[in-house]
Sequence to fold (134 residues):
Amino acid sequence: MLTREVNVKTEGGRSVVNVTRLVEDFVKESGVANGMVLVFLPHATAGFLLNEDEPNLRMDYSSFFEKLAPKEGEYMHNRIDDNADAHLLASLFKQFLVLPVIDGKLSRGTWQEIILLDFDGPRTRRITMVIMGE
Ligand code: ZN
Fold:
């Protein structure tokens, strides 16, 4: 078993960062041929998408997030903080992914990219990766 922690800097507000390469590099450098990789995000206002990364779809993601949890709203949490919408959005997404590693490669669909969603940037987000296998 091998682990790696990587810091990713995000932009202000809501942002989308493709981290597929980070995970694929880790898998390649681990030397594991067959097993699984866990990608974990220890944050309460961010999450992962395993989906297509295309410029128009990024705009669709953005308007989708705004429909789900408008930035401006009547939120109780905003009495003590200013990011209730970010917590609510993060609660709808996963803070971890587990993916198969087959023949030394990360197994994923053609249109599946590993995307970090930051709902409350700019921040430095930590990604913890764990690979198990042989
Ligand atoms: Zn908060």
Summary: Strands lie at 2-9, 13-18, 35-40, 46-51, 96-102, 105-106, 113-121, 124-133. The CA atoms of residues 3 and 130 lie 4 Å apart. The pocket of zinc ion is lined by residues 77, 81, 83, 87 (CB under 6 Å).
